[in-house]
Write a structure and sequence with these properties.
This protein has 208 residues and is α+β, with helices and mostly antiparallel strands. It folds into 3 domains: 31 residues; 76 residues, Beta-grasp domain (Ubiquitin-like (UB roll)), CATH 3.10.20; 69 residues, Orthogonal Bundle (DNA polymerase, domain 1). It has a 5-stranded mixed β-sheet, sandwiched between helices. Helix 3 packs across helix 6. The radius of gyration is 25 Å and the shape is elongated. The protein starts with 5 loop residues before the first strand and ends with a helix. The structure holds FE2/S2 (inorganic) cluster (2 copies).
Length: 208
């Protein structure tokens, strides 16, 4: 009777042995990768960091922070989980909703889609830094126009609105729509958001 475990000349034992060899091969590849990742420069002079934690520094709302972070962590991880700036929200965590919008070196970025190590040395503004003694005019207008329901999207809309008004003090309604076009609101507060930004623009023009 033929061996049921032996088909096409390959026994079950030999097949498993072969698998073992493959696993060893994979492990060897990974450790080679780790050695490469630990190097400071790659084949074309690219900076390679990790796999251990990397020390970075950046400024958030006027405060300097230094932290040791894994190279895989995002700017949103750094802000929320390491530094406690929970104003920027993690909603989609994949760059499609805008809830994590912050201002970095004068432009809006999605903190969930940027590695923290790429923000090394940057100047970052989050929603927590907008109010001083009083709310920022954009925040005030959001309250007045009831431009939020659950509020998850709100910090992102506010940061986009603030950045828009820094670049354009006299935005048309089309400019306002374009300015916050990367921000999504599942509760559908768009009309109130647009009115709030328009009002903040008028107030800021008058020096409010
Ligand atoms: S949480 Fe970053 S874009 Fe949605
Ligand atoms: S207020 Fe709920 S998602 Fe915008």
């Amino acid at each position: 009777m033929s061996d049921p475990q032996k088909k096409n000349g390959i026994s079950r034992r030999n097949f498993l042995k072969g698998m073992g060899t493959s696993v060893v091969g994979t492990a060897t590849l990974s450790s080679t990768h780790s050695v490469l990742a630990a190097a400071e420069t790659g084949p074309h002079g690219a900076r390679i960091v990790g796999p251990d934690r990397v020390t970075i520094t950046f400024d958030v709302n006027g405060h300097s922070h230094r932290l040791a972070i894994e190279p895989r962590e995002t700017l949103l991880d750094a802000l929320r989980d390491h530094l406690g700036y929970t104003g920027s929200k993690r909603v989609c965590d994949r760059g499609s909703c805008g809830a994590c919008t912050v201002i970095l070196n004068g432009r809006t970025v999605l903190a969930c889609s940027m590695l923290a190590i790429d923000a090394d040395g940057a100047k970052i503004e989050t929603v927590e830094g907008l109010a001083t003694d009083n709310l920022h005019p954009v925040q005030e207008a959001f309250v007045k126009h009831d431009a939020m329901q659950c509020g998850f999207c709100t910090p992102g809309f506010i940061m986009s609105g603030v950045m828009l008004l820094r670049k354009n003090q006299n935005p048309s309604s089309k400019d306002i729509r374009n300015g916050v076009s990367g921000n999504l609101c599942r509760c559908g507060t768009y009309p109130n958001v647009f009115s709030a930004i328009a009002e903040a623009s008028n107030k800021m023009k008058k020096g409010g």
